[in-house]
Design goal:
The structure holds 3 protein chains of 3 kinds. Chain A has helices at about 30-35, 90-95, 120-130, and strands at about 10, 15-20, 25-30, 40-45, 50, 55-60, 65-70, 75-80, 100-105. Chain A is of the alpha+beta class. In chain A, the strands form 2 sheets. In chain A, strands 1-2-3-9-8-5 form a 6-stranded antiparallel beta sheet. Chain A has a 3-stranded antiparallel beta sheet with strand order 4-6-7, with no helix packed on it. Chain B is about 35% helix and about 15% strand. A 7-stranded mixed beta sheet of chain B has the order 2-8-7-6-5-3-4, with helices on both faces. In chain B, strands 11-12-15-14 form a 4-stranded antiparallel beta sheet, covered by helices on one side. A two-stranded parallel ribbon of chain B has the order 1-13. The chains are: A alpha+beta, B alpha/beta, C alpha/beta. At the B-C interface, helix 1, helix 2, helix 4, helix 5 and strand 2 of B face helix 3, helix 4, helix 5, helix 6 and helix 7 of C.
Chain lengths: ~130, ~450, ~500
Amino acid sequence: MANTPEELSYTKDHEWVRTKGEQATVGITDHAQQQLGDVVYVELPKVGDKFESGEPFGSVESVKAVSEIYMPLSGTVVEVNSTLNDAPEKVNEDPYGDGWMVVVQLGNASEVDALLTAAEYEDYIKEEASE
Amino acid sequence: MRYIPNSPDERRSMLESIGYERIEQLFEQIPENVRSTEPLGIGPPVSEPDLLAYFRELASTNATDFQSFLGAGAYSHHIPVVIDPLISRSEFFTAYTPYQPELSQGTLQYIFEFQTMICQLTGMEVANASMYDGSTALSEAVLMASRVTRRNKFIIADSVHPQYREVVDAYTHNLGFEIDLVRCGQTGPLDLNSVRAGKDTAAIIVQSPNFFGCVEDLKAIADAAHEQGALLIVAVAEAMSFGALRSPGACGADIVVAEGQSFGIPLSYGGPYVGLFATLEKYIRQIPGRLVGETRDSNGRRGYVLTLSTREQHIRREKATSNICTNQGLFALMATIYLATMGRRGVQEVARQNLQKAHYAAEEIAKLDGFGLKFAAPFFNEFVVRTPERASEVARRLLDKKILGGIALETYYPELKDSLLVCVTEVAKREAIDRLVSALAG
Amino acid sequence: MDNSRIKKVSTHIVQNEGLLFEESRPGRVGYSISPLDVPERKDEDLIDAKFLRDDDLEGMPELSEVDVIRHFTRISTWNYGVDTGMYPLGSCTMKYNPRLNEKLARIEGFAGLHPLTPAPHAQGALRVIYRLEECLAKITGLAAVTLQPAAGAQGEFTGIRMIRACLSERGNPRKRVLIPDSAHGTNPASAIICGYDVETVPSNSEGGTDLEALRAMMSEDVAALMLTNPNTLGKFEKNIEEVCRIVHDKGGFVYMDGANMNALVGVTRPGDFGIDVMHMNLHKTFSTPHGGGGPGAGPVAVTPTLEPYLPFPRVFKAERGDLDLDFDRPKSVGRVRAYMGNFGVLVRALGYILTHGDPGLKEATQTAVLNANYIMENLKDVYDIPYPGPVMHEVVFSDKRQMKYGVKNADIAKRLIDYGFYPPTMSFPLIVPGALMVEPTETESREELDLFIDAMKSISEEASEDAEILKHAPYSTKVGRLDEVTAARKPVLRWRPKSGDDKQRAETA
C-alpha cells in the first residue's frame, strides 16, 4: 500500500506539493513511483523556467515507459534537485524526501486550495484502480 | 511453392482440423467486392536455374569491368574475404532486432563492439547502433542539433555531398528550419569569413574531406561554432579517411556522422550501406536510434541489452528522438568484421595507401598539358582535376576506353564546368593510374 | 524443475568469448593488402601534420584471421535466427530468407556497381528497379512506386511528406494526422517530422476503427489517416471502404502501413479498397533478411494523384527502350536517401517475387493465414484472446488467464526460450495489456507449429503448478535475465581500457 503523508497536497496527475510561504516543493507520489517501477532518469527544467499550473515540466522514465510530470501550481522554478541526475533511484526510495524534484516560487498562492488532501488523493487512487 | 514446407495435403488436413473446408473461408473478413478475382499479372513462377540466368544476364549489362575512379560518397576498397562467410551465418543474418537479449547476445555484443570502434575512429564519446546511410545520419544530426540547442538556423557548406544536402532538405522541409548555404566552389575548403554564425545558429555543418576531396580545418570551424553556442556537425563520406586524418572529435566536433560503406561493404549501386552516428556523452538522451549497453545478469555474468529505449518510437511515439526502427544491423556487422580484420594497423596502412596513391595520381595528372588541380587544399583520396575542356566531355571519352574516370562536377555545381572529381584508392594499381593519365592526355 | 516436457531442444556447450578489444594482442595481423606500388613519400609532405591522426588508433583491436573467425562464429551461436527455428514475432514476418536471393545480390555485376555509374552502363540495375516497381504496383493495385526509402519508417515519412506536398499545393497542408490506438510507434513519429500533430483514433470492440469516432474527428484540418491493415491485432478492417470514404469526403488521404502485407498479397489490393499511399517492408513480406535489425527497404506505392510528388530520380523508359533517370520532377518531395535506396535488398525482393509468380504469392498468403488460425484454434482454450474470431496472418493472445498465478507475458516469453523458441511480440498493440502477438508465417512446418503449441500449453501448465519457474526463466541461455535498470541508470555504451591495460601497453611498447 502506498504511503500518503497527511501534511502534503496532491494532484490527480500524482504529484505532491509541500508549501512553505510563497514557495512550494514538488515531487511524484509513492503511488506514482510504484506504478512506474524502477526510475532510471528524471528530466527536470532549469532554474528560472516559468510554468502555468497543469503544464508538463519534465518527465520520469523507467526502462520501458515515460511519464510526464505536471506542474501543480503556476510559478517560477527556483531550485532543482540535480542529485536525481546521478541517483534517480531516490524517486523510488524516498519520493517525499530526497526524491523531491523542484521548488517553485508561486505565482498565485490561492491555487493551493484547489489541490487534493491526502484523504481525497487516496480515494482518487482507489477510484482509478476500480475502473 | 517451394518455400512452404507443408504439402497441399498437410495444409488441407490442418484446415479441416480447425473446422474449415476451403482456404477461402479464412478470407471472409475481407469484403467480397474488394477480394481479387484476377491473378496479379506478374507471371508464372521462375525456377532457380532460370532465375539465376535472368539476373546474371541483367548484371552483365552493368559496367563493373571498367577501371573505376569514381568516389563521391561510395568507394572501391578491398573487402576481406572473411566478411561474407561470417555475415552469412544464419544466426546473424536471419535474426531480428535484439529485443530478447537472452537470445541475441551475439548481435548485441557486436553492436557494442561496433559502437566502441566508431567512437575510437571518430574521436567521440558515444555512437549508436547505426543509421540507414551517411545522408540520413546527417539529417538526424541536424534534427538532434535543433533539439539540443533549441535553435533552428543552420549553416551548411555546399561542399557537403549534394545528395546529403538534398536529404537534409527533405527531412527539415516541414519543420520551419532555416538553412544557409555557404558556397565553396571557388575556395575548396570552407572560407570562415563567409560564415555568418550568430547566437541563433544551431549548428555549422561541414563535410571533411569535403565533396571536392579537400580536408577542412575542423578545429577552426569548431571554434567559430562554439563561440556562438552552436554545434559543429561533421559529415564524413569516406570513412577510410579516419585511418589517416585527425579525428573530428579531436578537433572539437559535437556530432560526427559518416557513411561506413568503405568498411567492407560492396558498392551495390548505392546500398545497403551503414550510417555512422557519434556524439558527446552529455547528449545521450537526444541520440536517435538504438543503443546497446553493458550490464549483468542475476548471476553477475556480463551481458548486453538495448538501452535508453525511452528515446525511441516504440515507447515515446510522437515524442521520440527519431522515427527510425529498422536500421542497418547486418551492415554494421560487416563494418565491425572489417575493422576487426584490418585492425589498428591495417586501417592505418590502407588509409595511408589511399593517401599515397591519390597524391601520385594527382601529381601525374597535373603534369599534363592543360590539366591541373582545381584546389590547393590538402586532400585524402579524392581531388578535383581542372580539365582543358568540359569535364563531362572528358569523362564521356574515358568511357570509350572502359574507364570510369570521375564525376563531372557540373552536374551538381553548374559553374564548375571544367572540374572532374577523381578518386584513387588502394585497389587502383599503378598501371591503372598510369592508364588513366595517358587516356586523359588523349 | 521438470524439463522432460521440453521436446524441441537440449542444452549444448556454449563457447565463452570476450570483446574484440580483450582478445586483441599487440602485433597480431589478420589482413592482407598489396604492397604500395607508387613512389612512397612522407605523409607529412603530402598533408600538413596538423591534419594527420596522432593517436595511432589506440584501443583498436589487433587480431589474426583465425581470431576473427572464431570470435564472430562463437558469438553468433548466442543468437537465434529463422534458420534455427520458428520465430513468431508478430508484425515482423520472420519467414525463411531464401539463399537463392543472397546469391543474386552478390553477383559481381550488382555488388560491384558504383551508384554514380552513368545510366547507359547501369542498365541491368535500372531494369531491376523498373521491374520491381512494376511488380509492387501490381501487388498493391496502385499506380506508381518509389524504391528509395531505406526502411518502413522512412517509407511512412516519405508517404506523409507526399501527402503534405499535395495538400500544400492545393492551398492548405492541414494540421493533423489521425492514427489508431493499435498502430506501430513509427507512425506517430513519422507524422511529426512532417510537421503534423497526431491524434489517436480509438478502436471499437472488435479491434477495428471506431467509425463514429473517426467521423467526429475527421475534418478539413486532417491531412491523413494512417492505418495498418490488417491491423496489429491481425484483423482485416471490415469497414475499410467506409473508413476511406469518411476520410476522402473531407479531402484527406488514407495512408496504409503495409507491415502486414503478408496477409494480403494476391488476395486483395489496397488500391482496390481505397488506399491512396502505402509502404511495404521488403524485409517482411518479401523475405529479405532482417539481419539482426536491418537493412530493410520501405518502398512506397501511390495513386496517380500523388505520383508527381514521388522522390527523385525516377527510372523511366527512354526512346530506344533504354532506361534512364529523370531528375526533372518539379513537384517531387525531393530525395529521402542518397543514391537509389537499399539496392541489394531490392534485388533479393525481386528474386522472391519472380520465384513465386502469381500462384506462389497467393499460396504463400493463404498458408500464412492458415498457420496463424491453426495456432489460434489450438491455443484459444489455454490463452485469453481479447479480440476473438478468425484472424489473418497473426494472432494476439494475452496473459490474462496466467496473471491469476502472477505470471506476466514477459515470463511466458522468457520460458518459451527454454522450450527452443524465440518469444512473440509483447510491446504492442498498446490496447492489449499483456499482449503476446504471434505471427508464424507460411514457412513453418506443421511439426514446428505443433511443437510451439505444445510449448505454449506446457508453459501455461507450469504457470498453474509452479509460477516461480517462469519468473526466473530462461535457464538455458548463455546469460539469464539482464539488469536493464542499471544499464539505463548508468549507461556503459562502449568498451574502455581499464587503467591497468594502459600501463601494460606502455610497458610492452
